[in-house]
Structure formats: structure tokens, C-alpha cells
Amino acid sequence: MSKIIIVYASLTGNTEEMAELIAEGIRSTGAIADLKVVEECNAVILKKYDAFILGTYTWGDGELPDEFLDFVEEMEELELKGVVASVFGSGDTTYRLFCGAVDELEEQLQGWGAVIAQESLKIEFGPTKEEKELCRQFGEKIVAQLNVL
Ligand SMILES: Cc1cc2nc3c(=O)[nH]c(=O)nc-3n(C[C@H](O)[C@H](O)[C@H](O)COP(=O)(O)O)c2cc1C
Questions:
Q1: Interval between CA 130 and ligand 1 midpoint (Å)
Q2: Average pLDDT across the chain, whole number
Q3: How many CB atoms lie within 10 A of CB 66?
Q4: Which of 42, 56, 127, 131 shows a CA-CA span of 20 to 30 A to 91?
Q5: What is the CA radius of gyration of the chain?
Q6: Are the CB atoms for 126 and 13 separated by under 8 Å?
Q7: Distance CA 29, CA 85 (A)
Q8: Tell me: the pLDDT tens digits for 3-57?
Q9: Mean pLDDT of 114-138
Q10: Whose CA is nearest to atom 22 of ligand 1?
Q11: Residue ranges of the alpha helices (H) in 28-128?
């Protein structure tokens, strides 16, 4: 049975809502999904799972929130080559860099050689009814991908 961890940062709850829906999608396949707030865990935890999913809102001018900085530093110390991962997040299209933090995390993961199971999922503010379904499917597809790798 696949075990997936979702680590996220959310200030006003939008990314958190996405994280819960993605977890729902994962669990609907019979796989295990654990949810963690980024401030409350060290990146070494990622090694205990078959795949990990990172979720973040975007701050400043397309920036990664401060809560993620230590975690990214900790990830640099891990061997992530070949590890299955994906990224999602919420943003606001009126900003110059919509979901810039999501792109930043995805680029970092690619740089470390992680296997991006699904292209990042970006949503404006909280998910609409259709986007809620996209979040669930995102989770389901990552499990499906993990099963063929
Ligand atoms: C000061 C500030 C800066 C922001 N900068 C960006 C940005 O550069 N790009 C973007 O897509 N969204 C930006 N946002 C929007 C948030 O990412 C967006 O509101 C998101 O839905 C918050 O997610 P959360 O509810 O999980 O905290 C910014 C919001 C604030 C308050």
C-alpha cells in the first residue's frame, strides 16, 4: 500500500483546503495520506514515504513563504534523486508571478532529480466546485503514477 505525505503552508486556509482534498483523493484509492503543516516537521520525514506532495501559497513578489525556508534547507541535505514528488498551491492572478512559490519549489525538486509525478496544480484563492474535483483527481493520479513507476 502506497504511503504519501502532504506538507503544506497556508495562511488563510486556501492551500490547506486543497491539501485536504488531495488527501481525500489519495485515500479514495486505498493509499495512505498523511497531512503535515510545514512548520511542524523536519524534511527527513519525507524519507519515510513512497512519495511526497508540497503545497504552498505565494507571498511577497512571487516568493516562497518564510515557513518553508528551513524545510527547503533540510531538503537540500536529503538524497531526493528518483523520489516521486509533486507541488500544488493557491495564489492570486492579480500578482505578477501567479503561484510563483509553487514554480520555485517544483524547479528545486527537479534540480535535485526528484520525479515530478504530476505537473503542479495551481488555483486562485480557494477551490471552486470543479477545482475541488481537480484536487481529488490530482491525489488519485499521483497514486496511479506511483503504481506504474
Ligand atoms: C502580501 C501578499 C503577497 C502575495 N503575493 C502573491 C504573489 O506574488 N503571487 C500570487 O500568486 N499570490 C500572491 N498572494 C496571494 C496569496 O498567495 C493567495 O491569497 C493565497 O490564496 C493564500 O493562500 P492561503 O489561504 O493558503 O494562505 C499574496 C498575498 C499577500 C497578502
A1: 21
A2: 97
A3: 11
A4: 42
A5: 14
A6: yes
A7: 18
A8: 999 999 999 999 999 999 999 999 999 999 999 999 999 999 999 999 999 999 9
A9: 98
A10: 57
A11: 69-76, 100-111
Ligand 1 center to 120 CA (angstroms): 17
pLDDT tens-digit readout, 61-70: 999 999 999 9
CB 48 within 8 A of CB 3: yes
Furthest-apart CA atoms within the chain: distance in Å: 41
- Which ligand 1 atom lies nearest to the CA of residue 16? 26
Take residue 121 and report the three cell numbers written for it: 496544480
Q: Provide the 10 A C-beta neighbour count for residue 24.
A: 15
User: Which residue ranges have their beta carbon within 6 Å of ligand 1?
Assistant: 10-16, 57-62, 90-92, 95, 97-100, 125
The pLDDT of residue 149 is above 80: no
Which phi and psi (to 5°) does residue 55 adopt?
A: -125, 135
Q: How confident is the model at residue 131 (pLDDT cuts 50, 70, 90)?
A: very high
Say what the pTM is. Answer: 0.98
The mean pLDDT of 89-106, rounded to a whole number, is 98
Q: Which atom of ligand 1 is nearest to the CA of 125?
A: 21
Q: Whose CA is nearest to atom 4 of ligand 1?
A: 59
The residue to mutate among 18, 61, 90, 93, having the most atoms of ligand 1 within 8 angstroms of its beta carbon, is 90
